[in-house]
Amino acid sequence: MTAQNKQMVILASRSPRRIALLKQVGIASIVLPADIDESFYSGELPSQYVKRLAKEKALAVSANLKKEYSHLVVLAADTTVSIGDEVLGKPEDDADALRMLKKLSGTKHEVHTAVAAFFDGKIQVVLNTTQVTMVRLSTQTIQAYIASGEHRDKAGSYGIQGKAGAWIQHIAGSYSGVMGLPLFETMQLINQANSKR
To answer: pTM higher than 0.90 for the full model?
Structure first.
């Protein structure tokens, strides 16, 4: 296997943030988004939810992989925000985003990102959980943020790498994990797969 092939993965996500994070550490990606049901199961913990979805995404894409890509690692991830056991996923609309951001305002909450890697018939899943402390926000601040459109398609209705970064007082964990792909854990999975080639 060439060194070049070892620096490429199949990414089961269309997230531009995940693509950019992989590129940051020298990994190119072929984007093949997974189409799965992302419904939350009753009684499921936020950490269990993201691990299940990351695994299902990786398996769904690997099951339909063209033979020309069979030598590549299939990488999938899922991110959610939680307060206690309540999951705050991607907002359904602006009103939902307003509700979530009011709930997160002035709290210490958790961002869970699970990463799954499928290679050579085996799947491995790792979880990264980061504690995030957000300052108290006025309704006006939240409404201005929503008007910017930055909240769309983001777990918890905010992105730490954008304007909302100014609201984050402290994180305990992985900044890239809050963005949607914890690089330390991701590279461990990729390196483990590459070592078996």
So the answer is: yes
